[in-house]
Write a structure and sequence with these properties.
Length: 70
């Protein structure tokens, strides 16, 4: 798929994740026992980790885009 389409789809999904996350009450974000499927992690930690993960890929992608096409 062309980059603009891939980026648009990713951006739409990531913004939706942020939008939904903002609606979760703070106690539910911080309670590490609330969501058993997270294996003892608080939802807030998972969301922060998701952001960090996306940022890591973005930095690598931007560096790649700065390289000349061969």
């Amino acid at each position: 798929q062309p980059w603009p389409e891939v980026y648009s789809q990713w951006r739409t999904g990531f913004l939706r994740l942020l939008e939904v996350s903002e609606q979760i009450p703070e106690p539910a974000l911080l309670d590490s026992s609330r969501y058993a499927w997270l294996g003892g992690y608080a939802l807030a930690a998972v969301l922060i980790g998701s952001y960090d993960h996306h940022q890591e890929h973005l930095d690598k992608l931007l560096a790649r885009l700065d390289q000349p096409v061969s």
